[in-house]
Specification:
Layout lengths: L36 E15 L19 E14 L3 E9 L1 H6 L10 E11 L2 E9 L19 H4 L4 E9 L5 E8 L13 E10 L3 E11 L8 E12 L4 E13 L7 E14 L4 E12 L13 E15 L2 E12 L4 E3 L2 E3 L1 E12 L1
């Protein structure tokens, strides 16, 4: 499955497919020479989630993945075609499910079905230029749950871009360093909300496929032209494969946005998460996550409460690897917030507990 360019194949034991952790980095199809290469692959993830706050709308608040309460549903169904020619490549992925419904809600209905759609040319042996819709260059998680260490996504991932639209230059020579430069429509947009373009960078350093350090940035305006508020965001993560059975990752994100157009003051938000996964055997694995999200001025997450979105969470999941292409998962997670941002029986509460099960299939 060719879905991530600078992908770390963080395998625990012999069941590699259960513990791969793909970063939200550039998607790269390896150069195979002049002969054209075509690959078609599919991904399917049905799930069932239960929020003990029992939301009347059946939408679990503040989440974009696995966000429907007390019903069997489909988080993501994806069919992707990858074509590799002589110094060129194309990827087209079409999707449906509750993830695109929630995460692409600002886009025109026809565009909501695009998971990826980009083409690229190889201008030098180690330099690719791509343009279109592609995976975000932030974070250590994607919407493809089969490749993650936890069933659901972290608050870091849910509140930073999963996808981007624009052009990118990716320089990935032999050796530990890789670099990316991005010109984008904005912060997770297909349709540009204004006349400004955003800029982004990515630098990765990998040591013997055991340890990876990543630094990614974003600078742009997400408001209308008449009310520009410049945003700067930095994403830093570490991936460490401790041994064949155990892996640990850590993320720290921080951002600033102007409080008003032409203002010299900025609102700040930050978030962090620590994720660990351990394979007990070839078929059984466990994952744990601790996380914190602090957005007191509601730059990213609007709550309508005095202290904004200041939420701590933790989760634990159990995985059963049926085969290299199928995994059954169960997760329990709990959120606690500084303000009463959740609702239970019609009353505001500050906590939320959610149980989720899924079947992740790729072929």
């Amino acid at each position: 499955m060719n879905v991530a360019g600078l992908t770390l194949l963080l395998c625990a034991g012999s069941m590699c497919s259960a513990t791969n952790l793909y970063s939200q980095s550039w998607d790269t199809v390896e150069t195979h020479g002049p002969s054209p290469q075509i690959e078609i692959w599919t991904y399917l993830e049905p799930y069932f989630a239960y929020d003990f706050n029992d939301p009347s709308s059946k939408n679990i608040p503040y989440l974009f993945n696995h966000n429907r309460h007390n019903e069997f549903n489909l988080n993501l169904a994806l069919v992707e075609l990858d074509y590799q020619g002589n110094h060129m490549r194309t990827t087209i992925g079409m999707q449906t499910g509750t993830y695109p419904i929630a995460n692409y809600s600002a886009e025109p209905s026809l565009l909501q079905h695009i998971y990826q759609a980009f083409g690229g040319v190889q201008v030098l042996p180690d330099l690719w230029l791509d343009a279109g819709v592609f995976s975000s260059h932030f974070g250590i998680e994607t919407a493809i749950g089969h490749d993650q260490w936890t069933l659901t996504r972290s608050l870091c991932a849910e509140n930073s871009p999963y996808f981007e639209t624009g052009a990118r230059a990716v320089y990935d020579p032999d050796g530990p360093w890789s670099f990316g430069l991005f010109v984008l429509n904005g912060w997770q947009n297909i349709v540009d909300p204004n006349s400004n373009k955003a800029l982004g960078t990515q630098i990765q350093y990998t040591i013997a496929n055991k340890l990876t350090l990543n630094s990614s940035t974003f600078y742009g305006n997400e408001k209308p032209d008449s009310a520009k508020q410049w945003r700067f965001f930095h994403d830093f993560y570490v991936l460490w494969q401790v041994n064949e059975s155990c892996g640990i990752s850590g993320v720290f994100d921080i951002g600033w946005e102007q409080t008003a157009s032409h203002s010299e003051s900025y609102n700040r938000w930050y978030t962090f998460a620590v994720i660990a996964h351990y394979m007990l055997s070839e078929q059984w694995g466990i994952g744990i996550r601790g996380e914190q999200y602090n957005d007191p001025n509601a730059v990213i997450v609007a709550t309508g409460t005095p202290n904004g979105y200041q939420t701590f969470g933790y989760s634990a999941n159990v995985d059963y690897v049926v085969s290299d292409h199928a995994t059954l998962r169960f997760e329990a997670k709990h959120y606690s917030s500084k303000d009463n941002i959740f609702v239970r029986d019609g009353s505001p509460v500050g906590e939320s507990t959610i149980l989720t099960s899924s079947m992740a299939l790729e072929f």
